[in-house]
Design a protein that fits this description.
alpha/beta; 2 domains; six-stranded mixed beta sheet; 17 helices; 9 strands; globular
Length: about 375
C-alpha cells in the first residue's frame, strides 16, 4: 500500500508544530520494545478485555554506543546463563519499583552511556473515546481539552460506561439511536457537574461540552462512531509501529519480534516514494541487549503513566512520601526523560489525556 501521502502529512504536521527538520532527518538508531499490548480494546461478555487504566507503550532507547548482552547482564548483576526480563525485575506499582536496585541500575546505564529514551505512549481507554469529540460540531477550537474532560467523566465509573456503550454498539451507533446515546452521556456529565456544584466549583469546559452534546442530538450523523466494528473501541496496535516507520524514514528502527505485528506489516507492503522502506527490522529480544534495555524502559514508562493518571493532589502526596531511595531514583528517571526530550522533541509522543501529559511535563522539569 502506498503511504507516501500519509508520510508527507506526518512530516508536515511535525513542521507545523515547530519541529526543526533536523530532528526528523537525523540518522540514528532507535531500539524498541512494547509494554501493555492488549492487542485491541473490545467489549466481550459485558466486560472490557483490559483494565480501564491500561497503557500501551512502544519505545526504548536511541543509542550509538551499544553494549553486548554479557555487558548488560554483568551491569545488572545477573547470571550470564539466564535471560533478563523486566517482568521479573520490576514487579509491582511505580511506587514499588522506585525502590528496586535494577530500576536504578538500568537508568544509570542509560545515563552513563549517553543514550536517550524515546516513546509513543497510549492511554488505551482515552484513545477509545476520542472519536466522540471529533464527531461533535462546535468542539473544534479546543478538541484536546474536551477529550480530556470526557475521559474524566467516562473513566469515573467504567462499568456504567461499558454498559452504555455496549447498549448502543459503540463505535457503531445507529443513526436512530444518536439522541439516546448522547442523552446518556449528558446524564453522566450532569452527575459530575452536580458534584462540582456541591464543592462550590463549576467547570466551564464541562458545561460547554454538555451544551454541544445537546445540540449534537440534531446532527444527522456522528461520523467517527458509526459504521465501525461493533464493540471494538480500539483496533489492533500495529498502527503505532506503522506510525514509527512513516515518521522516521531516515532513522534505523530495530523492533522486538512480535509475530502478529511482523505479519501485518508484511501484508501491508508499505511503499513510500515508490519503494519499500528498508530502515526497519525485527530482532529476537533474547539475543539483543539493546532491545532488553528497551524492555525495561517501556515497563517503567507504562507504570509511570498509570501513576500519573490520577488527580494531581494524589500524585503530589505520593511524591512527598517517597523515601530517600525513591526520591533519588525518581529524580534520575525525570532527568533522563528531560534530557531525551531536549535532545529530540520527537522522542516524546502521547495519545493521552492532556491532564496526564501536563503532569508528565511538570514532573520531569
Amino acid at each position: 500500500m502506498d503511504y507516501t501521502e500519509v508520510s508527507n502529512s506526518i512530516r508536515m504536521m511535525m513542521k507545523a508544530q515547530g519541529i526543526d527538520e533536523m530532528y526528523i532527518d537525523k540518522e540514528e538508531t532507535l531500539y524498541y520494545d512494547e509494554s501493555g499490548n492488549v492487542k485491541h480494546l473490545i467489549v466481550k461478555d459485558c466486560k472490557l478485555n483490559a483494565d480501564s487504566d491500561t497503557v500501551f507503550v512502544l519505545g526504548g532507547v536511541q543509542a550509538d554506543d551499544i553494549i553486548s548482552l554479557e555487558e548488560l547482564k554483568t551491569a545488572l548483576g545477573k547470571n550470564l546463563e539466564k535471560e533478563i526480563k523486566s517482568t521479573k525485575d520490576l514487579k509491582g506499582t511505580f511506587i514499588e519499583i522506585l525502590r528496586k536496585e535494577n530500576f536504578r541500575k538500568i537508568l544509570q546505564i542509560i545515563q552513563d552511556k549517553g543514550w536517550h529514551i524515546h516513546f509513543c505512549i497510549v492511554q488505551v481507554l482515552y484513545y477509545g473515546f476520542v472519536d466522540i469529540i471529533d464527531s461533535i460540531c462546535g468542539l473544534e477550537f479546543n478538541p484536546f481539552a474536551f477529550k480530556a474532560e470526557l475521559y474524566k467523566v467516562l473513566k469515573r465509573n467504567p462499568n456504567t460506561t461499558i454498559s452504555i456503550f455496549k447498549k448502543y454498539k459503540y463505535p457503531n451507533v445507529g443513526t436512530k439511536y444518536i439522541k439516546d446515546f448522547l442523552s446518556e452521556l449528558i446524564i453522566l456529565i450532569d452527575g459530575v457537574i452536580a458534584e462540582d456544584v456541591k464543592k462550590y466549583r463549576l467547570n466551564p469546559l464541562l458545561v460547554f461540552l454538555k451544551s454541544c452534546l445537546e445540540k449534537a442530538k440534531e446532527q444527522k450523523e456522528l461520523i467517527f462512531i458509526q459504521n465501525e466494528t461493533t464493540h471494538e473501541w480500539v483496533g489492533n496496535f500495529v498502527q503505532f509501529y506503522r506510525q514509527q516507520i512513516l515518521s522516521f524514514p531516515k532513522k534505523t528502527l530495530v523492533f522486538d519480534e512480535e509475530k502478529q505485528v511482523m505479519s501485518q506489516i508484511t501484508e501491508e507492503d508499505i511503499i513510500i516514494d515508490g519503494k519499500a522502506p528498508d530502515n526497519y527490522s525485527f530482532k529476537e529480544s533474547g539475543s539483543d541487549a539493546m532491545i532488553q534495555v528497551s524492555d525495561y524502559v517501556v515497563s517503567i514508562l507504562r507504570k509511570y503513566m498509570i501513576f500519573l493518571d490520577r488527580l494531581e493532589p494524589e500524585v503530589d502526596a505520593d511524591i512527598q512520601n517517597f523515601d530517600e531511595n525513591q526520591k533519588n531514583n525518581y529524580k534520575l528517571l525525570n532527568r533522563i526523560l528531560a534530557d531525551s526530550m531536549n535532545y529530540n522533541p520527537l522522542f516524546v509522543h502521547f495519545v493521552a489525556c492532556q491532564h496526564t501529559v501536563a503532569k508528565y511535563h511538570k514532573y520531569i522539569q
